[in-house]
Amino acid sequence: MNETTAADVDAADDATRGRDAAGADAADPDAVVVGEGVRKSYGDVVALDGVDIRVESGEVFGLIGPNGAGKTTLVRALTGTTEAEGDLRVFGVPPREVDPQRIGLLPQSFDPPERLTATELVGYYGGLYDAARDAESVLRDVGMADDADVWYETLSGGQKRRTCVATAIVNDPDLLFLDEPTTGIDPAGRRSIHRLIERLAGGGTTVFLTSHAMDEVERLADRVALLRDGKIVAVGAPEELIADHGGEPRLEVKLDGPASEADCEAVQEAIREALSDESAGESEDAPAVESTRKGLRIGGVRPEGIGDAVDALETAEIDFESLAWSEPSLEDVYLRLTGEEYSPRSEPLDEVAPDGGDR
Length: 359
Ligand SMILES: Nc1ncnc2c1ncn2[C@@H]1O[C@H](COP(=O)(O)OP(=O)(O)OP(=O)(O)O)[C@@H](O)[C@H]1O
Known about the structure:
Blueprint: H1 6-17, E1 31-42, E2 45-56, E3 60-64, H2 71-78, E4 85-90, E5 103-106, H3 118-126, H4 135-141, H5 157-169, E6 175-179, H6 187-202, E7 206-210, H7 214-220, E8 223-228, E9 231-236, H8 238-245, E10 250-254, H9 261-278, E11 289-292, E12 295-299, H10 306-315, E13 322-326, H11 330-337, E14 347-348
Parallel strand pairs: 3-7, 3-8, 5-6, 6-7
Antiparallel strand pairs: 1-2, 1-4, 8-9, 10-12, 10-13, 11-12, 13-14
Helix pairs in contact: 3-4, 3-5, 4-5, 8-11, 9-10
């Protein structure tokens, strides 16, 4: 007679869930987070509308999207803090079955007890785990060593947020969810959090980062997903997304106000003539020239083409104040794919004399 033991039941259970005894996802062993067809509604509001997502071990995965896109809901679904439909697996098991020791979570809204010092607070959260790091060293990691003995309630907004980041990493998690970790943190503090994320990722921690700071995501994330209206509309490495959706580099020409239509046409014509001279009659599209609030913009200008653009401005007798060349960024991707206003990251050049000689 066959005797069914508890171990057999566990093994069968694991087999149906598609994981092996070590807790890895047998169907997808490199994946730490897998979501398929994830849906979540709050009454009539559809927060997640069939999200497919996969985060690999050791990667920094950025999640971006407008307010209300569903980012926090997705983080909550993946951390088991809210129920959602669909197939969700974290380390090969449903989110609520994951060993808490392996997960760190910095929620978007986090109100810890205020009448504790930063050290006491981090120690308190560390006490919730089987094993925890020393509070002092964690606070050092987030740039809070000097204020470790200050009451939480008297810390500044940015210092509070850094302390909260410390509570999320006190258990030395394998997978860290950071929901807008640098909100309200000053540039130096942000930089120290960025370095911390880079160090954690370098040490093998998988980081799931949501942020509205596109520069932060572009810098830190190996891959980025853009969520809009509860659906992922693009996913890829930042450089891939920028190449596919970021648009072209452009030259911003500062004048004493918006360029007139006639000026834009004159610049366009000068560029077209220069191009037709160069290409000896072969047809070539001239870069678009458009008026902006501060002057005009010439699209499609690569660094080696700045000299030609300056020549065209001179031919068109445009007396400009300065030039700023900008390349597309993740922010452009975001703005294009969400249909919001275009606002390029500019890299100002040195002041360029209108004769083009002082560049
Ligand atoms: N507890 C809730 N009850 C009702 N509706 C909710 C709840 N939580 C979220 N929503 C709604 O679900 C949608 C997605 O919200 P969510 O907070 O996930 O977006 P988000 O992308 O994180 O936004 P933000 O960038 O503003 O933080 C929104 O329309 C929001 O109003």
